[in-house]
Write a structure and sequence with these properties.
binds magnesium ion; HAD-like_sf; 283 residues; 31% helix; alpha/beta
Length: 283
């Protein structure tokens, strides 16, 4: 298994940033010419007091309550605040799509992220106690263990009926593509969430975009991510460049659905829809 390719950005605690120290006044000033420092990937506040944050064990219980799973069984409730909030976004999305009229000769399309946008990973968060581990996560992915995010199957099915092309865009690695497809649609293994099959693009590409190893990047990713560390796409660059690629083939991405801001930044969508996910943050 290729550890480095697994939903990586989520778990990178720090991003190395090279900093060149200014050399002041020529020789003899006591700084090295260059040094490097590490910066956290997540920019946030520094609490002045413990009272400014929620104790992490208490927070975990709040999340269990939010998912309607106070005892932490790993199954969220259909009546939970999570399900209500996700369903609300799903119905806002479908209402927007239904009112949208296609412009010109492009084909209208939607783009959907997978984890916690179409498939809910609550069971894995509970199992892992919110500590992502690529090996155990792969068990859940390859076992196709994730149920649908509430409301989203109906939304995507309606979109398909209304003539939208359906594209899925995930940071999961290419090695997990078949399991992802099986979990999303129906293959008789694990959960069959019942989403429509991805649309095959003009030119024959399949419409479930997983993240390739750098060595296998298509030209549009190589170009878009050339300045990223080791040429490896950040989530935002990977997703935005893929949406740009889709639109370059004659599609108009009317709506982009994601649970992370990094799913939604970078343009190439007329409207974005943010699904709830208080469990992790992927810069
Ligand atoms: Mg996601």
């Amino acid at each position: 298994m290729n550890i480095t390719s697994l939903r990586g950005p989520r778990r990178i605690a720090v991003a190395a940033v090279a900093v060149t120290a200014a050399v002041l006044g020529g020789a003899g000033v006591g700084w090295a010419a260059a040094t490097s420092t590490a910066q956290p990937a997540i920019k946030t506040i520094t609490p002045r007091s413990e009272k400014d944050v929620t104790n992490i064990d208490v927070l975990r219980q709040q999340l269990r309550n939010y998912y309607g799973d106070p005892l932490g069984t790993g199954q969220f409730a259909a009546t939970s605040n999570y399900a209500r909030e996700a369903s609300k976004v799903a119905s806002e999305g479908v209402r927007y799509l239904s009112h949208h009229r296609a412009h010109g000769h492009v084909t209208k399309a939607i783009v959907l992220d997978v984890d916690d946008t179409t498939l809910a990973t609550w069971n894995y968060e509970v199992f892992s106690n919110w500590a992502y581990n690529p090996a155990t996560n792969a068990d859940y992915v390859n076992g196709q263990k994730f149920p649908a995010v509430p409301g989203m199957v109906a939304t995507v099915r309606t979109a398909e009926r209304e003539g939208y092309a359906i594209f899925y865009l995930t940071g999961r690695p290419t090695s997990q593509e078949q399991a992802t497809l099986g979990n999303l649609t129906a293959d008789g293994v694990g959960v069959d969430a019942g989403f429509p099959k991805p649309t095959t693009l003009r030119g024959g590409e399949d419409g479930l975009f997983t993240k390739p190893d750098v060595s296998a990047y298509p030209a549009y990713l190589k170009k878009a991510c050339a300045a990223d560390p080791d040429g490896k796409c950040t989530t935002i660059h990977y997703k935005a460049a893929t949406r740009a690629h889709i639109e370059s083939l004659g599609y108009d991405i009317v709506a982009n659905f994601g649970d992370q801001y990094s799913d939604l930044k970078g343009g190439y969508a007329d409207q974005t829809f943010k699904l709830p996910n208080p469990n992790y943050y992927l810069p």
